[in-house]
Write a structure and sequence with these properties.
Shape of chain B: globular
CATH architecture of chain A: Roll
Structural class of chain B: mainly alpha
Radius of gyration of chain B: 18 Å
Distance between the termini of chain B: 49 Å
CATH superfamily of chain B: Ferritin, core subunit, four-helix bundle
Order of helices and strands of chain A: EEHEH
Number of strands of chain A: 3
CATH class of chain A: Alpha Beta
Strand content of chain B: under 5%
Distance between the termini of chain A: 62 Å
Number of domains of chain A: 1
Number of domains of chain B: 1
Number of strands of chain B: 0
Oligomer: heterodimer
Strand order of the largest sheet of chain A: 2-1-3
Strand content of chain A: 15-25%
Shape of chain A: flat
Radius of gyration of chain A: 19 Å
Largest interface: A-B, 15 and 14 residues
Helix content of chain A: 10-25%
Largest sheet of chain A: 3 strands, antiparallel
Structural class of chain A: alpha+beta
Helix content of chain B: 55-70%
Chain lengths: ~100, ~260
């Protein structure tokens, strides 16, 4: 059976100039131009937006979840974490990063 | 020539005031009826994404209608709900283009393109209007309208240059819609007072601008504008296709159960 679904594009949304583009979901469209047109209503109607990106899903090369052990730390690597200096709140908020771990004591 | 500016509606009087009232009815009724027509696709669009975009634009048009009805209210007409829901078909001033049933997706997106190209031409003209509240509203609506035009244009180009089937359907849609689209620019007795007061250009002038805006897109979409298309007039004086009555019956159904109900 042929696939009747259109191509999939991942959508990245920018809330204000200078802010990072954040992945907000995906959209079906026959091509990139139409993906942008349709993404506009899909992803900006409920929040402020100044810019959208659409990326064909094939352009993304993901790691495989079965290999997620590559991200595990065999030994203590806490010295790599950037807890020693302050990150401006605006950056942690827009990156969705968690607060640096506490290494007191 | 230096035009006098009208800072507020109460500065209008006589024939100019009457003409502005008629103009606002034409604008509002077009928006209300196309908004309702486009909303009929809600839940029936060809795919979810297209459905959401079309429905969202239908809401925009309803919002524009409300803004124009609000202006009419400021000019002493009834409140927006009564104007939208409480009139007989012959009291509406919409063009036949917006009354026509949706047909297929090709017709609906083609009509949306032709209609929003006309709206864009008007809003650009209104942004220079001597009627300041109208100029301000026009400037405010330009962004939404820009998107509507991008949406319509993109669909027309895709379907016109798509498959043999899509091209055929688009051509059939254009053959049907074009004479009605020309009817958007039906001249009325109010053209002169409006033009002379610098409030709105004459309909014939707007039509020319609209034709130069839509023809290159239609050509790029491999669509042929019907030769010697005869404009369908009548809407601006309350003569409508039967389809409007059916649409209004549905639109006014709940309102008519209890017009005094508070929501």
């Amino acid at each position: 059976m042929t696939d009747t679904q259109w191509k999939v594009f991942e959508v990245f949304h920018q809330q204000a100039r200078g802010e990072p583009h954040v992945h907000v979901g995906s959209i079906h469209a026959p091509d990139a131009e139409m993906a942008l047109i349709l993404a506009k209503e899909q992803y900006s109607r409920r929040q402020a937006c100044v810019n959208l990106w659409v990326v064909p899903v094939e352009a993304i090369l993901p790691t495989a979840y079965e290999n997620d052990d590559i991200f595990e730390r065999g030994t203590d690597k806490s010295y790599r974490e950037s807890w020693g200096y302050k990150t401006p709140k605006t950056i942690t908020a827009s990156h969705g990063a968690t607060e640096p771990r506490s290494h007191e004591g | 020539m230096e035009y006098k500016k009208f800072q507020a509606f109460d500065e209008l009087s006589g024939a100019v005031r009457e003409s502005v009232i008629d103009l606002l009815y034409r604008l509002a009724d077009d928006e209300l009826v196309i908004g309702h027509r486009n909303s009929e696709w809600t839940g029936h669009g060809p795919i979810l994404e297209a459905d959401i975009a079309f429905s969202s634009m239908a809401q925009d048009e309803m919002g524009h209608a409300q803004a124009y009805y609000q202006m009419l209210h400021q000019l002493g007409e009834a409140d927006p709900d009564t104007l939208a829901f409480g009139r007989k078909p012959r009291q509406y001033r919409c063009a036949s283009l917006v009354c026509l049933p949706n047909g297929d997706w090709a017709f609906s997106v083609l009509r949306q393109f032709l209609y929003d190209a006309a709206e864009t031409v008007r809003l650009i003209a209104f942004s220079e209007s001597t009627l300041v509240p109208l100029a301000q509203l026009a400037t405010k609506l330009r962004g939404e309208e820009k998107y509507h035009l991008m949406h319509g244009r993109t669909w027309v180009l895709k379907l016109g240059n798509g498959t043999e089937e899509s091209q055929k359907r688009m051509q059939a849609a254009l053959d049907l819609a074009y004479p009605h689209a020309l009817g958007l620019f039906e001249p009325t007795e109010f053209d002169e007072p409006l033009a002379q007061a610098g409030i709105s250009p004459r309909e014939g002038e707007l039509r020319k601008q609209w034709e130069s805006a839509v023809s290159p897109v239609l050509a790029d979409a491999r669509l042929r504008v019907p030769d010697n298309a005869k404009p369908v007039y009548g809407g601006r004086v309350g003569k409508h296709p039967e389809a409007l009555k059916q649409l209004l019956d549905q639109l006014q159904l709940v309102y008519n159960i209890d017009p005094m109900a508070k929501w």
